[in-house]
């Protein structure tokens, strides 16, 4: 099992050092070396990340702030020059806390803890229940259960949630590939709908809980039946 890893440190010399340490361990796969927490968000929007090796003191958003923002997210190993951060780290339950400068042997022991933690974790915990979309210069975390539907536009994806509407450069096909189980249904070549958002099923369209009507493609109608939607949702119209 390869462990998809991000290195996050605003110091370029330490980014380089940590990247070299990652390269020494055959179980780690370095996805990216990021200079900020915001850059890390961007990489998490594109890849499933298992581990973040992260500095604590960084501008804009600290390593602790990054960890607090990720519910049920990747595992963390913190690296810092300041011993007094050790107590603060416990609130986000990192796998380990490493003091700079870092010895290779100490780093390898830390990664072994990560490997054991991941191998003992139920598979479902390794599937993030959220994804990120870019909004200006930041990335917004969206929980899958908050999404009503997603609509493919010509050059972007429209994501409609219970509270707001977002746009993303992710493709509908990529989002669908990331989803596990049958919580979301492809109901049209341009639409992916959350099961719980469906109020009524007509022959040619769906009515959602927010009152919106979504087209139902002929080739997807049988899929609706196979996922065992409640019979009382079916309409004769």
TrEMBL record:
Keywords: Phosphoprotein. Residues 131-230 form the HTH LytTR-type domain. Residues 4-115 form the Response regulatory domain. GO terms for molecular function: DNA binding; phosphorelay response regulator activity. Pfam families: LytTR, Response_reg. The keyword Disulfide bond does not apply. InterPro entries: CheY-like_superfamily, LytR-like, LytTR_DNA-bd_dom, Sig_transdc_resp-reg_receiver. The keyword Phosphoprotein applies. This is Two component transcriptional regulator, LytTR family. It comes from Runella slithyformis (strain ATCC 29530 / DSM 19594 / LMG 11500 / NCIMB 11436 / LSU 4).
